Amino acid sequence: MAATSAPLYSTPATAREADPFPVKGMDAVVFAVGNAKQAAHYYSTAFGMKLVAYSGPENGSRETASYVLENGSARFVLTSVIKASTDWGRFLAGHVAEHGDGVIDLAIEVPDAYAAYAYAIEHGARGLVEPHEIKDEHGTVALAVIATYGNTRHTLVDRSGYDGPYLPGFVAADPLVEPPARRTFQAIDHCVGNVELGRMNDWVAFYNNVMGFTNMKEFVGDDIATEYSALMSKVVADGTLKVKFPINEPAVGKKKSQIDEYLEFYGGPGVQHIALATNDIVETVRTMRAAGVRFLDTPDSYYDTLGEWVGDTRVPLETLRELKILADRDEDGYLLQIFTKPVQDRPTVFFELIERHGSMGFGKGNFKALFEAIEREQARRGNL
Fold this sequence. Notes:
By secondary structure, the chain is α+β, with helices and mostly antiparallel strands. It folds into two domains: 25-172, 2,3-Dihydroxybiphenyl 1,2-Dioxygenase, domain 1 (Roll), CATH 3.10.180.10; 185-381, 2,3-Dihydroxybiphenyl 1,2-Dioxygenase, domain 1 (Roll). Helix content is 24%, strand content 33%. The protein has a nine-stranded mixed β-sheet with strand order 6-7-8-5-1-4-3-2-9. Strands 11-12-13-10-14-17-16-15 form an eight-stranded mixed β-sheet. A hairpin with a 2-residue loop joins strand 3 and strand 4. It starts with 24 loop residues before the first strand and ends with a helix. The relative contact order is 0.13. Mean pLDDT is 90; it is low at 1-16. Fe cation binds at residues 190, 273, 352. Belongs to the 4HPPD family.
C-alpha cells in the first residue's frame, strides 16, 4: 500500500467523516524512562493500571525494554534502553539524560495512517518515519511518525487489522499486581504541552493546519495569573473532542512561572501533564492516595465560598474539602479535578484526575487556586 495509491478518503456519509484528518482517539502515551521495570510497577501499584504487554530481551528486543499498561482506553507505554546500538536507542538514552523521565510520543489512532501522514506532510509537518506496516500472527498495524514541539512526536496508528495485545514485537503479559476492584480512571482526557515564550501560537497553528484541529478554549491575561507569575494557554482539539491538546507558554510575571520552571528542568518544550478521566474521583483519589500518590494541597479557605459559585455537585462540599478536590462550573455543567505533584524528582511531568458532568472546560475558575498551590511547591523547591 502506498500513500499515493488512492485518494485520502472516499465520499463520506457524515460531515465528520469528511474531515481530511479524522482521528479515532488517543492510542498511547509513550514515556522514555530510566528504568521501565520499576516505572511499570509504580503505575501498576500507585495508579491502579494493568500490565498487558511486554517487549524485551526475552522476546527478541535486545536494545529496549517496554511495558504496556492500560486502564480502560488509557494506555501508557514505558520504555527504557538496555544497551543503545541504533539511532533509536541512542535517541531514547539521550532523551532520558537530557529531560529525565518524560513523554516522547503522543500516539494517535487514525483510520488510515498512510492518508493521515500524507495530509500532515502536505500541510507542513516534519516527517520522522514514513508509513509502513508491521505484522505478526495477530494481524497488521500501519504506523507513521511526525514531529511536534521539542523532541515530542506523534505516531499515527492504524490498528484496525490487528487483535494482538499492543503491537507486533510485544507479547501478552500478566499483571504485576492485583488491580483495584474498580478502575481508577477510564480514559485520557487531554495532554498538555509546554512551549517557549512566543511559540504557543505557532504550535496552535501547527495543529490547525497539519491535523485540522480547531481552537477549543483560550486563556490569556488575568485568566491564568497570580501575584507572582502568569502563563497563557490555548486548547486545540479534533472535531469529536476525543483528542485535546492544551498548549501553554510562560507570560511575564514578577517571579518564575510553573512553565518557566518546567522548561528549565525539562531542558525545553515537552508534555507537562496528562489528564485522566474518571467516573468517581472520590474513590480514585482515596485509592491512589492510599497507594502513595501525592496530590497538590488546597487551603481550606478555597472551600469557604466554593458552594456559592459552583452550586451543588455530585460530591458533597465537605468531601471535596477533605480530599482537596477542586470544582468548577460553566454554561454546560460542572467538573471536579485534582492534580498530583510531579511523579519524578525533576519538577516536570504530573497528572490530573478529572470527572466531567457536562462541562468541557478545563477548570478556569480553579486556575488561581491551582497555580498558587503550584507556587507553594515551587517555593519549597527554591524555584519560584
